[in-house]
Amino acid sequence: PRPPAPAWFVQAVMLNAMAVASTAETPDGVRSVEAARADGGVGLFSLGGLMNHSCMPSVARIPFPGRLVVRAGRPLAAGSELTVSYVDVRKPFKARWEELQQSWKFRCLCERCQLEEEVWADSA
User: Fold this and answer.
1) This prediction's pTM
2) Phi then psi for 4, rounded to 5 degrees?
3) How far, in Å, CA of 59 to CA of 36, rounded?
4) Contact, 23 vs 31, CB < 8 A?
5) Which of 41, 64, 89, 106 has a CB 3.0–4.6 Å from the CB of 37, allowing a cystine?
6) Residue 108 near residue 94, CB atoms below 8 Å
């Protein structure tokens, strides 16, 4: 039997892994890219693992077999930080914060969260 992976490695994979895309082919030969593999496989991308979270991400991940592809959602200046969202940005403020705290152990301080925190504090 294989020895268990060290706890630090398991945690690193859990915090930095991204879903792996797969391709599907129809009987007529048309191929498409599926969002994630059915077996739940993940990929570790050294540069992708360096992208920080924002609830107003500058790029979106695009599934593509064997590669990490990102696309800017708005014009970016040279040298701008590339950020992705670790959670569904359509979720309400509190739900995003709770998920980030529970799954990634941090409190988001992006511009959007700071604004929403201020707005919700004023309404209380």
Assistant:
1) 0.65
2) -65, 150
3) 18
4) yes
5) 41
6) no
Of 110, 114, 115, 46, give the one whose Cα is nearest residue 84: 110
Tens-place pLDDT, residues 60-110:
887 666 677 888 989 999 999 999 888 899 999 999 999 999 988 899 999
Judging by DSSP bridges, how do beta strands 83-84 and 52-53 pair with one another? parallel
DSSP run (H or E) holding 69:
strand 67-72
Cα separation, 113 vs 93, in Å, equals 7
Partners of 68 in beta bridges: 63
Q: Are strands 67-72 and 59-64 parallel, antiparallel or unpaired?
A: antiparallel
Structure tokens, 110? 């992006």
The two structure tokens encoding residue 13: 């994979």
Structure tokens at 82: 């590339």
Residue 84 host element (H or E): strand 83-84
71 touches 51 (CB < 8 A)? no
